[in-house]
Design goal:
With about 475 residues, the chain is of the alpha/beta class. It has 17 helices and twelve strands. It has helices at about 1-40, 50-55, 55-65, 75-100, 110-135, 150-165, 195-200, 215-225, 270-305, 335-345, 345-355, 365-375, 380-385, 400-405, 410-415, 435-445, 450-465; strands at about 145-150, 170-175, 180, 185-190, 205-210, 230-235, 245-250, 255-260, 310-315, 320-325, 390-395, 420.
Length: about 475
């Protein structure tokens, strides 16, 4: 009973917070419409509004939020942001449809409604994530989880729960046939004690992460715990497949479950959309960075009189070779310097063989070191994107030797999309990650590619560049 009160209290706070956020963002949009937009659009007519005239739109947003599961589903941060933006868009369409049907369009500012939707999509997810963190810190709305299992599978799910705070799960314990430890959690011995543990520890959900168990054992376990908790989550013995857009299908008469795995790359509409977004964003970015690129070019030229741009061969989509552009960050005799240091220093040689990079690279100039740390050396790759050789987001551009030695069977994934200026590797530690892990990230990106994933990576890239996280 106490557990339910705790959860429902958290939901009530979240709903009240959402209502307040909607009202505040509405007033912010009104200020933007009255004070700023007339300076941008000179012919915009004067605007007067009555708050009571618009009050009916707020219940529509809340109803759509409820329908889309924003108060019931346990979602990762970025999945929840996606559902929030989707809900805001649906609400906007419903509001416009009501105005059209009621023939009230002339009485309401469509410019204001559009502004509200845009600002909501940007600010609302930020406010909501902060509020949820506060709610979880008060131990409200959290769900106590019992993990059944041990070994690598249990370890992975524990790490996932600890890393993804937005889920609101609190690990209450781990139980399995044998005792021991998984990470810092003691494993309680005895599957037959599950019901007693559930009752004693006020468990809300159970996650089954057992390894090397037969299907009949898993079925028996699921059926046993299903009606003793609110939700039972089963982690199947499947890894390495695409998870983005994966759906569960159920054949009722045969009592059979099927996993539908989509090939997002086979959809020409989304792929063409990606190319259009690449081109338009690249033009905007290029217009903004021209002064910076000119300044960097002058500094490089004055530093050692060598060429400003370094062009190197890389492999792109469909195994096509292209010239990848970067600001030159190394001395002109870089190859000679590398050969000398690898011959003299075994530790550097080992580091080079593992990462194809050196942390304290003697080939890099002083200005080059700054450009690399800030990722400014990659700005000229915007020309590769405009030429269609690269994308804003994609696998890391590599040379043929790297493909042959490290990618092997994963090379087929690499060839399916253009390499990117940024990607999963760039927002996952970059130089701190092992080469095998980089390859696995590239393969995972291609298997799970979608436009939303690209948006997430672009946003995380901005954060990584500002904080210089894992810069080479």
């Amino acid at each position: 009973m106490i557990s339910k009160i705790r959860i429902y209290s958290g939901y009530l706070i979240l709903i009240i917070s959402d209502i307040i956020s909607l009202i505040l963002i509405f007033h912010l949009s009104v200020i933007f419409r009255i004070k700023i937009m007339p300076h941008i659009f000179k012919e915009l007519p004067p605007f007067k509004y009555n708050f009571n005239q618009y009050i009916w739109i707020f219940p529509i947003f809340l109803i759509v939020f409820i329908y889309e599961g924003l108060y019931s589903k346990r979602l990762s941060l970025w999945d929840e942001v996606k559902f929030q933006i989707k809900s805001i868009f649906i609400s906007f369409i419903i509001i416009l449809s009501i105005l059209f049907i009621a023939k009230k369009g002339a009485e309401f500012s469509r410019m204001l409604l559009t502004t509200i939707s845009i600002i909501l999509s940007i600010i609302f997810p930020l406010i909501r994530s902060k509020v949820k963190k506060m709610i979880y810190s008060l131990n409200l709305m959290t769900r106590r989880v019992l993990i059944i299992g041990s070994g690598e599978k249990a370890e992975k799910i524990i790490k996932a729960i600890e890393n993804e705070k937005n889920l609101g799960y609190k690990i209450a314990g781990v139980i399995d046939d044998e005792g021991g430890y998984v990470l810092n959690y003691p494993i309680h011995k005895g599957i037959n004690k599950i019901e007693r543990y559930i009752n004693a520890s006020q468990i809300n959900d159970v996650i089954i992460a057992k390894q090397e168990s037969s299907i009949s054992e898993i079925e028996k376990l699921i059926n046993y715990v299903q009606h003793k908790v609110q939700n039972t989550i089963y982690i199947p013995d499947i890894s390495g497949i695409a998870v983005s857009g994966t759906d569960i299908r159920y054949f009722f008469q045969e009592q059979t479950i099927a996993i539908e795995i989509k090939n997002n790359l086979s959809n020409p509409v989304t792929y063409i959309t990606k190319r259009i977004i690449d081109y338009l964003l690249s033009l905007i970015i290029f217009a903004l960075i021209i002064p910076l690129m000119i300044l960097i070019s002058i500094i490089i030229k004055l530093s050692d009189k060598g060429p400003v741009i370094y062009s190197h061969k890389r492999i792109g989509k469909n195994d096509n070779e292209f010239n990848c552009y970067k600001f030159r960050t190394m001395y002109i005799d870089a190859d000679k310097r590398l050969k000398e240091i690898l011959e003299k220093d075994p530790e550097k040689k080992k580091e080079w063989e593992n990462y194809w990079k050196l942390k304290d690279d003697p080939r890099v100039t002083k200005i080059g070191n700054f450009l690399r740390k800030t990722s400014l050396d990659e700005l000229p790759q915007i020309f590769n994107v405009l030429k269609g050789e690269m994308s804003l987001v994609g696998p890391r551009p590599v040379i043929q030797k790297e493909l042959n030695e490290y990618y092997r069977e994963n090379a087929e994934y690499y060839f399916k999309v253009p390499p990117g200026i940024t990607g999963l590797w760039q927002v996952s530690g970059r130089s701190e990650t092992s080469y095998d892990y980089r390859v696995s990230l590239d393969a995972w990106y291609v298997k799970n590619w979608n436009l939303w994933l690209d948006i997430i990576i672009l946003i995380r890239t901005i954060k990584a560049v500002i904080k210089q996280e894992g810069a080479c």
